Amino acid sequence: MITNELSKNWVRISAIADHVGQEITLKGWLYNKRGSGKIQFLQMRDGSGFMQCVLSKQDVSEEMFELASSLTQESSIILSGIVKKDDRAPFCGHELQVTSVTLVGKSVDYPIAKKEHGDAFLMDHRHLWLRSRRQHAILRIRATIIRAIRDYFDNHDFLLVDSPIFTPNACEGTSTLFETEWFDERKAYLSQSGQLYQEATAMAFGKTYCFGPTFRAEKSKTRRHLNEFWMVEPEVAFMDLEGDMQLAEDFLCYVVEVVLNKHEKDLTEILERDLTILKNVKKPFPRLSYDEAVLMIQEIQKEVTDEETKKLMHIEWGMDFGSPHETELTKRFDKPLIVYGFPSQVKAFYMKKDPQNPKVAKCVDILAPEGYGEIIGGGEREDNLEFLLKEIEKHGLNQNDLEWFLDLRRYGSVPHAGFGLGVERTVAWLCGLHHVRETIAFARTLDRLYP
Ligand code: 4AD
Ligand code: MG
Predict the structure, then answer these.
(1) Which residues, 6 or more positions from 407, have their beta carbon under 8 angstroms from its beta carbon?
(2) Is the pTM of this model over 0.85?
(3) 378 Cβ closer than 6 Å to some ligand 1 atom
(4) I want to staple 423 with a disulfide (CB 3.0 to 4.6 A). Which of 11, 86, 230, 327 is the partner?
């Protein structure tokens, strides 16, 4: 039934504009339907787009009209007909005047109806929820973001060298490690970040990046945390914190520009995203030192009337930012905000200490506006062997597992820096989504390993 006569003129909806006036065939699923005894409006989706297909009783046999009238949501179908351009037609400005309907697979009692479903129900049916227009828009934008990320680094002379997933040691703190058996020999851990390996590849190739899944056994149930997420991590030899901040800024502007150019309609019409602030993502971004940011948060806290929020907003020098701090801080800015120079004590072992003030790390976070918070974290890496050895001990890490990393400081060490951008948080911000769970096809969170 699939490779029959009908296949000859098979067209994807995304290319429909090239076929006006022609007789073509569409293969896909019934998205929605309305109609009467004389005419049926079949809204079809084929994965590349959505299209209204119109079936008049007079144009087809009685059985075929009956079949069309009885089709249910998400039945798979093959439709043939003539393509008509019609600016008023929903979805794609074209309509198919149907001459033939074939049912491929029935769909009985499709669980996702037009009515509102709760988040848990939709996440349980994620494998079906992906068929909706909203999820199509989000996942297409995600794909564009990923392509833009790759294009940026490929076009700026970075070499893609992916880091391993199985690692012998922690990168971002031992409390969020996923552990597994490495045969009978030892424990292995799922990578929390490819950074340490990028430091080796940057010393080999100068400018490299890795782009892959990363894992954090975080037991937090926030709208920003996943246990499996995708991160791009550039690393550059002979670059300092200032260079790192400029690179991150330029890179982020590029990604936003590409998404706006390609997806303005998806963002505004399907996701109802207000684009004012996204259109404002131009260099330079405002910058605050950690010290300035803490003072600002303390000022904001004074204005807060809600006691619960007031408590969460408490901060003193030496504490890391939590989501509430980032949310309130970024609401005060209409561009991404750069915060640099966090206290060394709250940062990872590899962060370079400021030689002028070793209590402070030469690190940077970039916080997305509109309350989204941190999407980029990075900075200069410690290149002083003695300092590193002390930090490795202080963080309870096993020096033997990191000898290779220390070698990078023994053989031609240079100042170097890089950062990591989390894809899902970026998708959430650009699409204006409240929660990261919709930014990846199958989210992995504390309470979700299914489907
Ligand atoms: O700030 P993080 O932990 O930095 C690193 O891992 C560095 N080693 C990166 C580097 O310098 N090469 O993570 C970087 C980014 C965050 O800003 C955030 O966007 C994302 O990764 N991220 C998460 N995204 C979703 N769920 C989580 N649990 C995340 N943890 C970090
Ligand atoms: Mg961070």
Answers:
(1) none
(2) yes
(3) yes
(4) 230
Q: 7 vs 205, which has greater pLDDT?
A: 205
Question: Which residues, other chains included, contact 198 with Cβ-Cβ below 8 Å and sequence gap of 6+?
Answer: 161, 163, 208, 209, 210, 233, 234, 235, 418
Ligand 1 atom, smallest distance to 235 CA? 12
**Where do the domains of the chain lie, and which CATH numbers do they carry?**
5-105 (2.40.50.140), 126-439 (3.30.930.10)
Model pLDDT for residues 413-435, shown as the tens digit of each residue: 999 999 999 999 999 999 999 99
Largest CA distance in the chain: 86
Residues facing 51 on adjacent strands? 44
State the angle between helix axes of 423-431 and 133-155 in degrees (0 to 180), rounded to the nearest 10. Answer: 120
With b for 16 or more beta-carbon neighbours within 10 A and e for fewer, the 376-394 pattern comes to bbbbbbbbeeebbeebbee
Q: Quick check: CB of 425 below 6 Å from ligand 1?
A: yes
212: helix, coil or strand? strand
Of 391, 363, 359, give the one whose Cα is nearest residue 376.
363
Please count the residues of the chain: 451
Distance CA 91, CA 350 (A): 51
